[in-house]
Amino acid sequence: MSYMAEQASRATTVAIIRRKVMLELGRQGVTATKVDELTLRLDSGGYMGLNNLVDRCLNAPVRHWTDCVEAHVTTMLESQRLSDPEQLMSLPDDEFYLRLRERVAPLGNLPTLDAFTYSHPLVDVPNSPRRVLNLTFPDLALTVTDQILGNRDLDTAWAFGRQNTGAMKFDVHESMVKDGIVIDVWRGDSIYLASKVADMPTLITSNLGEAPFGVLFTIPNAYEIDSYLPREYDDTARAAMHLLGVAQGLSRNTPNPLSDHVYFWRDGQYCQVTGNAPAELFTDTLRELQRS
To answer: Where are the alpha helices (DSSP H) in 83-182?
Structure first.
């Protein structure tokens, strides 16, 4: 299929799914109007994005689309109900901290950084994914704003969020081999699994093994980490290229895409290896490996 035909087919699919969503919203007593191809404005004043739903439908048989739409609409409406700041601020400390998770999320997930000044970029580059805190409910993840954290101790919130994300387990560990380069694949069903890269020392201890020369990794979507432990110059340089292909391929047309870049961590520092970003941390490590 040509690129133009593929785009036309996707536009038709989006229109079908958007229509199904508007019908389901109407069935639940909510009126919606189209803002753009993938955004609806609700009569409550809120908005509903369709990106993840479209990706989910494209990865499911057409006969399941109605079920996907019903689940998405129900979850999003419940999200709006639960995201009332006063209700969340009134949660007891023990319940609030128990529900917190540290999450690495795409910058695009945050409508405006003004409401999330507590958040931090994973890497010091423009458009970096950001470390944020989520409150988790059954089938629901709410990104915490400054307002919701206003009556909590921020250091305690971060500590609980990191601990709770760190306690989550991968469902699958397998190897991806290409041209003799072995990439470790770690994934599962939780949207917080890729966020474990925010606490790399714990991830290394719990899963990756010894990493004297750091960790090269990608986080193409919220459910997966693909990693490589540098040991030798040539293999590490080739691994970076293989990981770029993985990141670009697996971050497209997938629920909860995260990043199509390759990253590197060593001794508490991160850098972005691909794109127009300073990567001295990685290049210095390559020089070290070349000399050894």
So the answer is: 85-89, 93-99, 154-166
Determine the pLDDT at residue 38. 84
* Contact status, residue 183 vs residue 227, Cβ threshold 8 Å: yes
Over the range 65-80, which residues count as b (16 or more CB within 10 Å of their CB) and which as e?
beebbeebbebbbebb
Asked if residue 107 has pLDDT above 80, the reply is: yes
Give pLDDT, residue 167: 95
Which tokens sit at 278? 């300073």
Write down the mean pLDDT value for the chain. 91
Query: What contacts 263, CB < 8 A, 6 or more positions away?
Result: 122, 123, 197, 216, 217, 218, 219, 270, 271, 272, 273
Give the DSSP H/E element, type plus range, for residue 131. strand 130-137
Beta strands per DSSP E along 82-123: 100-105, 120-121
CA–chain centroid gap for 200, Å, is: 16
Estimate the crossing angle of helix 65-82 against helix 3-27, to 10 degrees: 60
Digit-coded pLDDT (tens) for 143-201: 999 999 999 999 999 999 999 999 999 999 999 998 899 999 999 999 999 999 999 99
